Amino acid sequence: MGRFVWTLLAGFALGTPAVPVGLSLSLPGPVTLVAVLVGAACCVVFAVFAMERVRLRWQSWRARRNSAAAPVVFAKGGDGPPAVGVATGDDARLSGGAGRRARRVLDRYGVVGFGIAGPALFGTWGSALLGAALGIPRWRLIRWLTAGIALWCTVLLFASNAAFAVFGIG
């Protein structure tokens, strides 16, 4: 029971790479897979809900700051909406390297592709946080990231079993 709990905690902390941890603790493959999947799924749910909350607070803070600090310049004649050059929406989100890469994956393959490729490209925590920051609907993101984690955990389980057999470990 203790080895299962340690593997579950490793799945929460590390995500998919926790599969060799469970195998090195002498857990059978299917038990390791279940422990890592449960831990990683808890990680995804926690990260998505936390990041969504942070994103909403950041957006409201930014809107308050921009509305208070932005000069009000009216169109010709004084009628019409103020013209303020503030980047909003998708073009203002995640302008760093990882954010641009995540946006490319999301634009090219959609939420399904992001969920399947995300754990391999960005890690479990990274893909959950990036997906929530990009504004992907939370339950779609959780569902597809969990499917991606299941896929990559299964691949890593077979690869780890083969490596352990080749090197005579465990």
Description:
The protein has helices at 2-14, 19-24, 29-69, 97-122, 124-133, 138-167. The chain is an all-alpha fold and 170 residues long. 74% of the residues lie in helices and 0% in strands. Helix 1 (2-14) runs parallel beside helix 3, helix 3 (29-69) packs parallel to helix 5 and helix 5 (124-133) runs antiparallel to helix 6.
Low-confidence stretches: 77-88
Please provide the ordered H/E string of secondary-structure elements. HHHHHH
Mean pLDDT: 84
| Relative strand content | under 5%
Evaluate the radius of gyration: 21 Å
Helix content: over 70%
How many alpha or pi helices?
6
Helix/sheet category: mainly alpha
Morphology = elongated
Condensed summary:
The protein contains 6 helices and no strands. The chain has 170 residues and is mainly α.
Features:
170 residues; mainly alpha; 74% helix
Summarize the SSE layout with pairings:
Layout: H1 2-14, H2 19-24, H3 29-69, H4 97-122, H5 124-133, H6 138-167
Helix pairs in contact: 1-3, 3-5, 3-6, 4-5, 4-6, 5-6
